[in-house]
């Protein structure tokens, strides 16, 4: 019997950012630079950058409470056809339990939902998979963007839309 071996995940980048507004731009630039050789179609790269920026802003604001001395850690790996971006803050013990409410524009305009609360909804719809976990003080969001054969056809060159 032949066995197909899968290469081990490969770290493409790992860095820490101060929890200050604007660090999200640094995060999206460094992530984009780290995956440049993977030939992600421009539309998919833009989606990944948007998700990274939003997740980083959430980590800065909600996780680390805008405290510059507490870093947001970002790691980018490639696991086969998947690009995985992991963003970790120190706000785990402050993260409310439960699932996020799906934003409804009409309810927000009517004042029945708070005006904020689009972050996780936006992130979830920009990437192929999203996982959120908390381990003590560590709150982590893991974003997965598939490349090549695993990517949605509509997002590939010559695909739908």
Please describe the topology of this protein:
Layout: E1 10-17, H1 23-34, H2 42-63, E2 72-79, E3 82-89, H3 105-109, H4 119-126, E4 129-135, E5 138-146
Antiparallel strand pairs: 1-2, 2-3, 3-5, 4-5
Helix pairs in contact: 1-2, 2-4
Summarize the structure.
This protein is an alpha+beta fold and 161 residues long. The chain is 29% helix and 25% strand.
Written overview of the protein:
The protein has a five-stranded antiparallel sheet with strand order 1-2-3-5-4, covered by helices on one side. The longest helix has 22 residues, at 42-63. With 161 residues, it is of the alpha+beta class. The model has no long low-confidence stretch (mean pLDDT 85). The protein has helices at residues 23-34, 42-63, 105-109, 119-126; strands at 10-17, 72-79, 82-89, 129-135, 138-146. It has a single domain, classed as 2-Layer Sandwich (Heat Shock Protein 90), CATH 3.30.565. Helices cover 29% and strands 25% of the residues. It is globular, with a radius of gyration of 17 Å. Helix 1 runs antiparallel to helix 2.
């Amino acid at each position: 019997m032949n066995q197909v071996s899968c290469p081990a995940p490969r770290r493409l980048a790992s860095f820490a950012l101060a929890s200050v507004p604007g660090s999200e731009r640094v995060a999206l630039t460094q992530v984009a630079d780290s995956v440049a050789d993977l030939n992600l179609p421009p539309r998919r790269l833009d989606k990944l950058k948007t998700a990274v920026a939003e997740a980083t802003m959430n980590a800065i604001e909600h996780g680390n409470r805008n405290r510059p001395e507490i870093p947001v850690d970002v790691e980018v790996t490639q696991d086969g056809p998947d690009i995985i971006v992991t963003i970790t803050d120190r706000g785990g013990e402050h993260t409310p339990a439960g699932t996020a409410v799906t934003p409804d524009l009409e309810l927000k305009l009517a004042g029945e939902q708070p005006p904020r609360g689009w972050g996780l909804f936006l992130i979830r719809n920009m990437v192929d998979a999203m996982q959120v976990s908390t381990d003590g003080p560590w709150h982590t969001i893991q974003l997965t963007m598939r490349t090549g054969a695993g990517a949605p056809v509509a997002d590939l060159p010559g695909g739908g839309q």
